[in-house]
Amino acid sequence: MLRTLLLVLLTGTVVFAQPQPKDPPTKDVPTADVRKFTATPAATPTPALKYELLPRLRDRTPGNAALDYHRAYLLRPSWPRDPKESTKLNETLIAWEELTVEKLPVAEVKKHLLGYSQSFRALDAAAKSDHCDWELASKISVKNIDLLLTEVQTFRELARSQKFRVRVALAENDFASAVQHIQTGIRLGKDVGEGATLIQSLVGIAITSIFLNELEQLIQRPNSPNMYWALATLPRPVLDPRSALEGEGRIFDNLFPNAKQLEKGPVTVERANLLLEEMLTAFNSMGSEINFAPGGLAVATYVALHAAGARKHLVELGWPAATVEKMPPAQAVALRAITAYRIMTDDQTKCFSLPFPEARAELAKVRERGDKLRKDSGDAIVTAFALTMPAVEKVHEAHARTNRRVAALRAIEAVRLHAAANDGKLPKSLADIKVVPVPDDPYTLKPFEYAVKDNAFTLAGLPPTRDKPHVGNNFRYEIGLKAK
Protein backbone atom coordinates (compact mmCIF):
# COMPACT_ATOMS: atom_id res chain seq x y z
CA MET A 1 0.00 0.00 0.00
CA LEU A 2 1.04 3.60 -0.57
CA ARG A 3 0.97 4.15 3.14
CA THR A 4 2.25 7.70 3.46
CA LEU A 5 0.72 8.84 0.19
CA LEU A 6 -2.64 7.57 1.30
CA LEU A 7 -2.17 9.48 4.54
CA VAL A 8 -1.64 12.65 2.53
CA LEU A 9 -4.74 12.14 0.42
CA LEU A 10 -6.78 10.62 3.25
CA THR A 11 -6.71 6.89 3.31
CA GLY A 12 -6.50 3.97 5.65
CA THR A 13 -3.99 5.44 8.08
CA VAL A 14 -6.12 8.42 9.02
CA VAL A 15 -9.20 6.29 9.43
CA PHE A 16 -7.62 5.17 12.70
CA ALA A 17 -8.75 8.54 14.04
CA GLN A 18 -12.16 6.90 14.29
CA PRO A 19 -11.98 3.11 13.98
CA GLN A 20 -14.16 1.69 11.26
CA PRO A 21 -16.24 -1.43 11.94
CA LYS A 22 -15.37 -4.59 10.04
CA ASP A 23 -17.51 -7.53 9.10
CA PRO A 24 -17.79 -9.71 12.20
CA PRO A 25 -15.44 -12.71 11.90
CA THR A 26 -17.36 -14.81 14.44
CA LYS A 27 -20.80 -15.08 15.96
CA ASP A 28 -19.41 -13.68 19.23
CA VAL A 29 -18.78 -10.23 17.75
CA PRO A 30 -21.81 -7.94 18.35
CA THR A 31 -23.70 -6.86 15.25
CA ALA A 32 -25.54 -4.01 16.97
CA ASP A 33 -24.70 -1.19 19.36
CA VAL A 34 -27.23 -1.72 22.17
CA ARG A 35 -27.53 0.96 24.85
CA LYS A 36 -29.71 0.42 27.90
CA PHE A 37 -30.62 2.99 30.53
CA THR A 38 -33.43 4.61 32.47
CA ALA A 39 -34.67 8.15 31.92
CA THR A 40 -37.32 10.43 33.37
CA PRO A 41 -39.93 12.56 31.57
CA ALA A 42 -38.68 16.10 31.00
CA ALA A 43 -40.42 19.18 29.65
CA THR A 44 -38.85 21.95 27.60
CA PRO A 45 -36.65 24.23 29.73
CA THR A 46 -37.58 27.88 30.13
CA PRO A 47 -36.38 29.58 28.05
CA ALA A 48 -36.28 26.84 25.42
CA LEU A 49 -32.58 27.41 24.72
CA LYS A 50 -31.50 27.62 28.33
CA TYR A 51 -29.06 24.83 27.47
CA GLU A 52 -27.14 24.86 24.19
CA LEU A 53 -24.48 22.63 22.68
CA LEU A 54 -22.50 25.35 20.89
CA PRO A 55 -21.77 28.87 22.15
CA ARG A 56 -23.97 31.59 20.73
CA LEU A 57 -22.36 34.23 18.59
CA ARG A 58 -23.26 36.91 21.14
CA ASP A 59 -21.30 34.99 23.78
CA ARG A 60 -18.13 34.76 21.71
CA THR A 61 -15.13 37.03 21.98
CA PRO A 62 -12.69 38.18 19.29
CA GLY A 63 -9.75 35.83 18.83
CA ASN A 64 -8.40 32.74 17.12
CA ALA A 65 -9.43 29.63 19.03
CA ALA A 66 -6.49 27.68 17.59
CA LEU A 67 -4.06 29.63 19.77
CA ASP A 68 -5.95 28.81 22.95
CA TYR A 69 -6.37 25.15 21.98
CA HIS A 70 -2.59 24.86 21.61
CA ARG A 71 -2.16 26.80 24.86
CA ALA A 72 -4.54 24.40 26.61
CA TYR A 73 -2.40 21.47 25.51
CA LEU A 74 0.84 23.12 26.61
CA LEU A 75 -0.59 24.02 30.03
CA ARG A 76 -1.78 20.54 30.87
CA PRO A 77 0.17 18.75 33.65
CA SER A 78 3.15 16.73 32.51
CA TRP A 79 2.66 13.00 32.10
CA PRO A 80 4.76 10.96 34.58
CA ARG A 81 8.19 10.14 33.20
CA ASP A 82 8.57 7.05 35.32
CA PRO A 83 7.19 4.13 33.26
CA LYS A 84 5.53 2.51 36.26
CA GLU A 85 3.81 5.74 37.31
CA SER A 86 2.78 6.40 33.72
CA THR A 87 1.23 2.96 33.36
CA LYS A 88 -0.52 3.26 36.72
CA LEU A 89 -2.03 6.66 35.84
CA ASN A 90 -3.25 5.45 32.46
CA GLU A 91 -4.83 2.37 34.05
CA THR A 92 -6.58 4.60 36.59
CA LEU A 93 -7.99 6.87 33.89
CA ILE A 94 -9.20 3.89 31.88
CA ALA A 95 -10.89 2.47 34.98
CA TRP A 96 -12.64 5.79 35.62
CA GLU A 97 -13.80 5.96 32.01
CA GLU A 98 -15.42 2.55 32.32
CA LEU A 99 -17.35 3.42 35.50
CA THR A 100 -20.91 4.68 35.54
CA VAL A 101 -21.45 8.22 36.83
CA GLU A 102 -22.91 6.80 40.05
CA LYS A 103 -19.74 4.86 40.81
CA LEU A 104 -17.26 7.55 39.85
CA PRO A 105 -14.85 8.38 42.72
CA VAL A 106 -15.65 12.08 42.50
CA ALA A 107 -13.15 13.27 45.11
CA GLU A 108 -10.27 11.44 43.41
CA VAL A 109 -11.22 12.66 39.96
CA LYS A 110 -11.53 16.27 41.15
CA LYS A 111 -8.10 16.03 42.76
CA HIS A 112 -6.68 14.75 39.47
CA LEU A 113 -8.31 17.59 37.54
CA LEU A 114 -6.84 20.28 39.80
CA GLY A 115 -3.65 20.10 37.78
CA TYR A 116 -5.60 20.99 34.63
CA SER A 117 -7.04 24.28 35.91
CA GLN A 118 -4.93 26.49 33.61
CA SER A 119 -5.43 24.12 30.69
CA PHE A 120 -9.19 24.19 31.19
CA ARG A 121 -9.16 27.97 31.38
CA ALA A 122 -7.51 28.13 27.98
CA LEU A 123 -9.86 25.47 26.58
CA ASP A 124 -12.92 27.41 27.74
CA ALA A 125 -11.51 30.58 26.18
CA ALA A 126 -10.98 28.75 22.88
CA ALA A 127 -14.59 27.57 22.86
CA LYS A 128 -15.76 31.18 23.18
CA SER A 129 -13.47 32.58 20.48
CA ASP A 130 -15.24 33.91 17.41
CA HIS A 131 -13.19 31.94 14.86
CA CYS A 132 -10.66 29.14 14.48
CA ASP A 133 -7.91 29.14 11.86
CA TRP A 134 -5.30 26.39 12.04
CA GLU A 135 -3.33 28.03 9.20
CA LEU A 136 -2.39 24.67 7.73
CA ALA A 137 -3.72 24.47 4.18
CA SER A 138 -1.04 26.64 2.61
CA LYS A 139 1.81 25.21 4.69
CA ILE A 140 1.56 21.43 4.32
CA SER A 141 4.23 19.94 2.10
CA VAL A 142 5.79 16.57 1.40
CA LYS A 143 8.32 17.23 4.16
CA ASN A 144 5.92 17.98 7.00
CA ILE A 145 2.73 16.04 6.28
CA ASP A 146 3.55 13.40 8.93
CA LEU A 147 3.56 16.10 11.63
CA LEU A 148 -0.16 16.73 11.10
CA LEU A 149 -1.23 13.49 12.76
CA THR A 150 0.88 14.30 15.81
CA GLU A 151 -0.73 17.72 16.10
CA VAL A 152 -4.34 16.67 15.74
CA GLN A 153 -3.96 13.80 18.18
CA THR A 154 -3.09 16.29 20.95
CA PHE A 155 -6.69 17.44 20.87
CA ARG A 156 -7.92 13.94 21.63
CA GLU A 157 -5.95 14.17 24.88
CA LEU A 158 -7.66 17.47 25.70
CA ALA A 159 -11.01 15.83 25.01
CA ARG A 160 -10.19 13.03 27.45
CA SER A 161 -9.57 15.39 30.36
CA GLN A 162 -12.59 17.50 29.40
CA LYS A 163 -14.76 14.40 29.55
CA PHE A 164 -13.93 13.97 33.22
CA ARG A 165 -15.13 17.52 33.90
CA VAL A 166 -18.49 16.49 32.47
CA ARG A 167 -18.64 13.32 34.55
CA VAL A 168 -17.89 15.16 37.81
CA ALA A 169 -20.61 17.71 37.09
CA LEU A 170 -23.10 14.94 36.32
CA ALA A 171 -22.18 13.06 39.49
CA GLU A 172 -22.96 16.24 41.45
CA ASN A 173 -26.18 16.81 39.45
CA ASP A 174 -24.81 20.15 38.31
CA PHE A 175 -26.52 20.05 34.93
CA ALA A 176 -25.67 23.63 33.98
CA SER A 177 -21.94 22.95 34.37
CA ALA A 178 -22.23 19.57 32.65
CA VAL A 179 -23.87 21.14 29.60
CA GLN A 180 -21.28 23.92 29.58
CA HIS A 181 -18.45 21.35 29.55
CA ILE A 182 -20.17 19.31 26.83
CA GLN A 183 -20.56 22.52 24.83
CA THR A 184 -16.82 23.18 25.09
CA GLY A 185 -16.09 19.62 23.98
CA ILE A 186 -18.39 19.79 20.96
CA ARG A 187 -16.91 23.15 19.96
CA LEU A 188 -13.44 21.56 20.17
CA GLY A 189 -14.59 18.70 17.94
CA LYS A 190 -16.20 21.07 15.48
CA ASP A 191 -13.17 23.35 15.25
CA VAL A 192 -10.79 20.44 14.76
CA GLY A 193 -13.15 18.73 12.33
CA GLU A 194 -13.56 21.83 10.18
CA GLY A 195 -9.83 22.22 9.60
CA ALA A 196 -8.20 22.14 6.20
CA THR A 197 -7.67 18.37 5.92
CA LEU A 198 -9.77 15.24 6.03
CA ILE A 199 -7.45 13.94 8.73
CA GLN A 200 -8.72 16.75 10.95
CA SER A 201 -12.25 15.97 9.88
CA LEU A 202 -12.03 12.42 11.21
CA VAL A 203 -10.40 13.42 14.48
CA GLY A 204 -12.99 16.15 14.95
CA ILE A 205 -15.78 13.64 14.42
CA ALA A 206 -14.20 11.31 16.99
CA ILE A 207 -14.01 14.14 19.54
CA THR A 208 -17.60 15.19 18.85
CA SER A 209 -18.70 11.60 19.38
CA ILE A 210 -17.08 11.60 22.82
CA PHE A 211 -19.27 14.47 23.93
CA LEU A 212 -22.42 13.11 22.33
CA ASN A 213 -21.75 10.09 24.56
CA GLU A 214 -21.55 12.45 27.53
CA LEU A 215 -24.81 14.08 26.47
CA GLU A 216 -26.33 10.61 26.52
CA GLN A 217 -25.01 10.24 30.09
CA LEU A 218 -26.78 13.48 30.98
CA ILE A 219 -30.08 12.35 29.48
CA GLN A 220 -30.18 9.28 31.71
CA ARG A 221 -29.55 11.20 34.93
CA PRO A 222 -32.66 11.54 37.14
CA ASN A 223 -34.48 14.83 36.54
CA SER A 224 -32.05 15.91 33.84
CA PRO A 225 -33.14 18.80 31.58
CA ASN A 226 -34.60 18.01 28.18
CA MET A 227 -32.05 18.63 25.44
CA TYR A 228 -34.37 18.39 22.42
CA TRP A 229 -33.99 22.01 21.34
CA ALA A 230 -30.29 22.04 22.10
CA LEU A 231 -29.92 19.13 19.66
CA ALA A 232 -32.38 20.57 17.14
CA THR A 233 -30.43 23.84 16.90
CA LEU A 234 -27.08 22.19 16.16
CA PRO A 235 -25.85 22.85 12.61
CA ARG A 236 -26.81 20.30 9.96
CA PRO A 237 -24.47 18.64 9.28
CA VAL A 238 -22.96 19.02 12.73
CA LEU A 239 -19.47 19.34 11.25
CA ASP A 240 -19.24 21.10 7.91
CA PRO A 241 -17.09 18.91 5.61
CA ARG A 242 -16.52 21.59 2.99
CA SER A 243 -13.44 23.22 4.50
CA ALA A 244 -11.66 19.87 4.72
CA LEU A 245 -12.72 18.77 1.25
CA GLU A 246 -11.59 22.05 -0.29
CA GLY A 247 -8.45 22.03 1.82
CA GLU A 248 -7.44 18.68 0.36
CA GLY A 249 -7.42 20.31 -3.08
CA ARG A 250 -5.06 22.98 -1.82
CA ILE A 251 -2.82 20.33 -0.29
CA PHE A 252 -2.66 18.54 -3.65
CA ASP A 253 -1.46 21.78 -5.24
CA ASN A 254 1.12 22.20 -2.47
CA LEU A 255 2.42 18.69 -3.02
CA PHE A 256 2.50 19.05 -6.81
CA PRO A 257 3.05 22.81 -7.26
CA ASN A 258 3.68 22.65 -10.99
CA ALA A 259 0.62 20.57 -11.87
CA LYS A 260 -1.30 23.67 -12.95
CA GLN A 261 1.30 24.41 -15.62
CA LEU A 262 0.39 21.16 -17.34
CA GLU A 263 -3.31 22.03 -17.17
CA LYS A 264 -2.88 25.30 -19.08
CA GLY A 265 -2.07 23.60 -22.37
CA PRO A 266 0.84 22.05 -24.28
CA VAL A 267 4.34 22.72 -22.90
CA THR A 268 7.77 21.89 -24.30
CA VAL A 269 9.11 18.36 -24.25
CA GLU A 270 11.83 19.36 -21.80
CA ARG A 271 9.36 21.06 -19.47
CA ALA A 272 6.97 18.10 -19.58
CA ASN A 273 9.74 15.63 -18.75
CA LEU A 274 10.94 17.78 -15.86
CA LEU A 275 7.45 18.21 -14.35
CA LEU A 276 6.67 14.52 -14.61
CA GLU A 277 9.97 13.69 -12.93
CA GLU A 278 9.14 16.17 -10.14
CA MET A 279 5.81 14.45 -9.66
CA LEU A 280 7.36 11.00 -9.46
CA THR A 281 10.02 12.27 -7.06
CA ALA A 282 7.30 13.66 -4.78
CA PHE A 283 5.70 10.22 -4.65
CA ASN A 284 8.98 8.59 -3.73
CA SER A 285 9.71 11.16 -1.01
CA MET A 286 6.41 10.28 0.66
CA GLY A 287 7.60 6.74 1.32
CA SER A 288 5.64 5.05 -1.44
CA GLU A 289 6.15 1.30 -1.66
CA ILE A 290 5.96 1.68 -5.44
CA ASN A 291 9.35 2.86 -6.59
CA PHE A 292 8.88 5.09 -9.61
CA ALA A 293 12.67 5.38 -10.04
CA PRO A 294 12.55 8.84 -11.64
CA GLY A 295 15.34 10.11 -13.82
CA GLY A 296 16.65 9.62 -17.33
CA LEU A 297 15.88 6.30 -18.94
CA ALA A 298 13.41 5.26 -16.22
CA VAL A 299 11.14 8.23 -16.93
CA ALA A 300 11.43 7.68 -20.69
CA THR A 301 10.42 4.05 -20.28
CA TYR A 302 7.49 5.03 -18.05
CA VAL A 303 6.29 7.58 -20.59
CA ALA A 304 6.66 5.20 -23.54
CA LEU A 305 4.60 2.60 -21.71
CA HIS A 306 1.68 4.92 -20.88
CA ALA A 307 1.60 7.79 -23.40
CA ALA A 308 -0.82 6.28 -25.94
CA GLY A 309 -3.34 5.22 -23.31
CA ALA A 310 -3.00 8.58 -21.54
CA ARG A 311 -3.92 10.49 -24.71
CA LYS A 312 -6.97 8.30 -25.22
CA HIS A 313 -8.13 8.74 -21.63
CA LEU A 314 -7.58 12.50 -21.63
CA VAL A 315 -10.03 12.84 -24.53
CA GLU A 316 -12.52 10.62 -22.67
CA LEU A 317 -12.04 12.82 -19.59
CA GLY A 318 -13.01 15.94 -21.53
CA TRP A 319 -9.83 17.34 -23.03
CA PRO A 320 -10.12 18.45 -26.71
CA ALA A 321 -8.47 15.89 -28.98
CA ALA A 322 -6.58 18.61 -30.91
CA THR A 323 -5.07 19.97 -27.70
CA VAL A 324 -4.08 16.52 -26.45
CA GLU A 325 -2.39 15.74 -29.76
CA LYS A 326 -0.07 18.74 -29.34
CA MET A 327 1.06 17.67 -25.88
CA PRO A 328 4.43 15.96 -25.36
CA PRO A 329 4.05 12.32 -24.22
CA ALA A 330 5.24 13.08 -20.66
CA GLN A 331 2.64 15.82 -20.31
CA ALA A 332 -0.15 13.50 -21.43
CA VAL A 333 0.92 10.87 -18.86
CA ALA A 334 1.13 13.33 -15.97
CA LEU A 335 -2.02 15.19 -16.99
CA ARG A 336 -4.12 12.02 -17.11
CA ALA A 337 -3.36 11.37 -13.44
CA ILE A 338 -3.95 15.01 -12.47
CA THR A 339 -7.24 15.20 -14.40
CA ALA A 340 -8.43 11.89 -12.98
CA TYR A 341 -7.70 13.11 -9.45
CA ARG A 342 -9.54 16.39 -9.98
CA ILE A 343 -12.58 14.62 -11.45
CA MET A 344 -12.69 11.91 -8.79
CA THR A 345 -12.42 14.36 -5.91
CA ASP A 346 -15.07 16.68 -7.37
CA ASP A 347 -17.42 13.77 -7.97
CA GLN A 348 -16.96 12.58 -4.39
CA THR A 349 -17.18 16.05 -2.87
CA LYS A 350 -20.58 16.78 -4.43
CA CYS A 351 -21.98 13.67 -2.74
CA PHE A 352 -21.46 15.19 0.72
CA SER A 353 -24.35 17.55 -0.08
CA LEU A 354 -26.82 14.76 -0.87
CA PRO A 355 -29.12 12.85 1.50
CA PHE A 356 -27.39 9.72 2.77
CA PRO A 357 -29.12 7.09 0.57
CA GLU A 358 -28.55 9.13 -2.59
CA ALA A 359 -24.97 9.94 -1.60
CA ARG A 360 -24.09 6.28 -1.04
CA ALA A 361 -25.50 5.30 -4.43
CA GLU A 362 -23.62 8.09 -6.21
CA LEU A 363 -20.37 7.39 -4.34
CA ALA A 364 -20.56 3.78 -5.48
CA LYS A 365 -20.85 4.93 -9.11
CA VAL A 366 -17.88 7.27 -8.67
CA ARG A 367 -15.81 4.44 -7.23
CA GLU A 368 -16.74 2.18 -10.16
CA ARG A 369 -15.59 4.83 -12.65
CA GLY A 370 -12.35 5.30 -10.75
CA ASP A 371 -11.71 1.55 -10.60
CA LYS A 372 -12.32 1.23 -14.33
CA LEU A 373 -9.87 4.01 -15.13
CA ARG A 374 -7.30 2.49 -12.77
CA LYS A 375 -7.54 -0.92 -14.43
CA ASP A 376 -7.62 0.46 -17.96
CA SER A 377 -4.64 2.74 -17.43
CA GLY A 378 -2.34 0.38 -15.56
CA ASP A 379 -0.66 3.58 -14.37
CA ALA A 380 0.75 3.53 -10.84
CA ILE A 381 -0.01 7.23 -10.28
CA VAL A 382 -3.64 6.86 -11.34
CA THR A 383 -3.82 3.77 -9.15
CA ALA A 384 -2.47 5.71 -6.16
CA PHE A 385 -5.13 8.38 -6.55
CA ALA A 386 -7.91 5.83 -7.10
CA LEU A 387 -6.93 4.01 -3.91
CA THR A 388 -7.87 7.09 -1.89
CA MET A 389 -11.52 6.85 -2.94
CA PRO A 390 -12.75 4.22 -0.43
CA ALA A 391 -11.18 6.23 2.39
CA VAL A 392 -13.10 9.37 1.39
CA GLU A 393 -16.25 7.24 1.47
CA LYS A 394 -15.38 6.28 5.05
CA VAL A 395 -15.15 9.95 5.93
CA HIS A 396 -18.60 10.46 4.45
CA GLU A 397 -19.90 7.55 6.54
CA ALA A 398 -18.31 9.02 9.68
CA HIS A 399 -20.12 12.32 9.10
CA ALA A 400 -23.36 10.45 8.45
CA ARG A 401 -23.05 8.44 11.68
CA THR A 402 -22.58 11.64 13.66
CA ASN A 403 -25.66 13.25 12.13
CA ARG A 404 -27.63 10.05 12.70
CA ARG A 405 -26.59 9.98 16.34
CA VAL A 406 -27.82 13.54 16.86
CA ALA A 407 -31.15 12.68 15.21
CA ALA A 408 -31.58 9.60 17.43
CA LEU A 409 -30.87 11.54 20.63
CA ARG A 410 -33.29 14.22 19.50
CA ALA A 411 -35.97 11.56 18.93
CA ILE A 412 -35.36 10.21 22.45
CA GLU A 413 -35.77 13.69 23.88
CA ALA A 414 -39.00 14.07 21.91
CA VAL A 415 -40.29 10.96 23.67
CA ARG A 416 -39.36 12.47 27.04
CA LEU A 417 -41.15 15.69 26.09
CA HIS A 418 -44.29 13.75 25.15
CA ALA A 419 -44.21 11.82 28.42
CA ALA A 420 -43.85 15.04 30.42
CA ALA A 421 -46.91 16.48 28.67
CA ASN A 422 -49.00 13.31 29.09
CA ASP A 423 -48.74 12.31 32.75
CA GLY A 424 -45.63 10.21 32.18
CA LYS A 425 -47.21 8.06 29.47
CA LEU A 426 -45.12 6.96 26.53
CA PRO A 427 -46.38 7.56 22.97
CA LYS A 428 -47.58 4.42 21.21
CA SER A 429 -45.71 5.52 18.09
CA LEU A 430 -43.42 8.35 17.11
CA ALA A 431 -46.25 9.71 14.96
CA ASP A 432 -48.25 10.26 18.17
CA ILE A 433 -45.76 12.87 19.34
CA LYS A 434 -47.26 16.28 18.59
CA VAL A 435 -45.35 18.58 20.94
CA VAL A 436 -42.31 18.74 18.64
CA PRO A 437 -41.28 17.34 15.25
CA VAL A 438 -39.55 13.97 15.47
CA PRO A 439 -36.60 13.63 13.07
CA ASP A 440 -36.43 10.72 10.66
CA ASP A 441 -33.47 8.35 10.46
CA PRO A 442 -31.00 10.06 8.08
CA TYR A 443 -29.86 6.63 6.84
CA THR A 444 -33.30 5.69 5.53
CA LEU A 445 -35.21 9.02 5.45
CA LYS A 446 -37.93 7.13 7.32
CA PRO A 447 -38.92 7.16 11.01
CA PHE A 448 -36.66 5.36 13.45
CA GLU A 449 -37.89 1.92 14.49
CA TYR A 450 -39.88 2.44 17.70
CA ALA A 451 -41.75 0.10 20.04
CA VAL A 452 -43.31 0.37 23.52
CA LYS A 453 -43.69 -2.25 26.21
CA ASP A 454 -45.02 -1.29 29.62
CA ASN A 455 -42.95 1.67 30.84
CA ALA A 456 -40.08 1.14 28.40
CA PHE A 457 -39.42 1.84 24.76
CA THR A 458 -36.88 0.95 22.11
CA LEU A 459 -35.59 3.23 19.42
CA ALA A 460 -33.50 1.64 16.69
CA GLY A 461 -31.61 2.56 13.56
CA LEU A 462 -31.26 -0.36 11.17
CA PRO A 463 -28.45 -0.94 8.66
CA PRO A 464 -28.84 0.42 5.14
CA THR A 465 -30.40 -2.02 2.69
CA ARG A 466 -28.08 -4.90 1.73
CA ASP A 467 -25.45 -3.87 4.29
CA LYS A 468 -24.27 -6.37 6.86
CA PRO A 469 -25.19 -5.19 10.37
CA HIS A 470 -22.36 -4.08 12.65
CA VAL A 471 -21.99 -1.72 15.59
CA GLY A 472 -21.34 1.20 13.26
CA ASN A 473 -24.57 0.99 11.24
CA ASN A 474 -26.99 -0.82 13.54
CA PHE A 475 -28.02 0.52 16.96
CA ARG A 476 -30.81 0.12 19.46
CA TYR A 477 -31.68 2.12 22.54
CA GLU A 478 -33.61 0.28 25.25
CA ILE A 479 -34.89 2.90 27.66
CA GLY A 480 -37.04 2.48 30.71
CA LEU A 481 -39.11 5.49 31.74
CA LYS A 482 -39.20 6.26 35.45
CA ALA A 483 -41.52 8.81 36.98
CA LYS A 484 -39.91 11.79 38.69
> Can you write the helix and strand succession as a string?
HHEEHHHHEHHHHHHHHHHHHHEEE
Which runs of at least 5 residues are low in confidence (pLDDT < 50)? 1-25
- Strand numbers in spatial order across the main sheet: 1-6-5-4
**Form type:** globular
**What structural category do the secondary elements indicate?**
alpha/beta
Compute the number of strand runs. Answer: 6
* Strand fraction: 5-15%
Mean pLDDT: 89
Radius of gyration: 26 Å
Distance between the first and last residues' Cα: 57 Å
Query: How many helices in DSSP terms?
Result: 19
Brief account:
By secondary structure, the chain is of the alpha/beta class. It is built from 19 helices and six strands.
Describe the structure.
The protein is of the alpha/beta class. Among the domains are: 52-224, no CATH class; 252-390, no CATH class. It contains 19 helices and six strands. The strands form two sheets. A four-stranded mixed beta sheet has the order 1-6-5-4, with helices on one face. Strand 4 (449-453) and strand 5 (456-461) form a beta hairpin. Helix 3 packs antiparallel against helix 6 (117-127), helix 8 (175-193) runs antiparallel to helix 9 and helix 9 (198-219) packs antiparallel against helix 11. The protein is globular.
